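Anyone up for a design puzzle?
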């Protein structure tokens, strides 16, 4: 969550990286059912949906390809996500994808206190090995 005054930008994004021998990086983004989960007990749509709606997938692709050399050859699959109708946006998921790729490309132990560095531009750690 990112507080921006009266609003909070929200997003959750997870991925895995699977190396291969081909000369390219492939990005795969799973799109959720556009209707989202339904709470039968309450008879209404839940506010947070699990999976990614199509309107944020472009942001995920843009973020994943921000630094394509970070991961090297393989497939990065964005398979987990959560959004809210009011606080999730294309740009939030672009920033999240940049950070997720940086985390996957790191070969060092990550101190939780330094986790936000992966999502903040120039202060991010340099490219390294691979994580899944």
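Challenge accepted. My sequence:
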């Amino acid at each position: 969550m990112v507080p921006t005054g009266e609003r909070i930008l929200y997003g959750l994004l997870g991925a895995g990286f699977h190396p291969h021998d081909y000369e390219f990086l492939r990005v795969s983004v799973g799109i959720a059912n556009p209707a989202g989960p339904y709470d039968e007990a309450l008879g209404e749509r839940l506010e947070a949906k699990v999976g990614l709606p199509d309107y944020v997938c472009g942001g995920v692709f843009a973020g994943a390809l921000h630094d394509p050399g970070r991961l090297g050859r393989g497939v990065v699959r964005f398979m987990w996500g959560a959004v809210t109708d009011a606080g999730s946006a294309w740009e939030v998921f672009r920033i999240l994808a940049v950070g997720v790729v940086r985390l996957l490309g790191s070969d060092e132990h990550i101190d939780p206190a330094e986790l936000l560095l992966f999502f903040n531009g120039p202060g991010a750690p340099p490219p390294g090995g691979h994580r899944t």
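A detail worth pointing out: The chain has one domain: 2-123.
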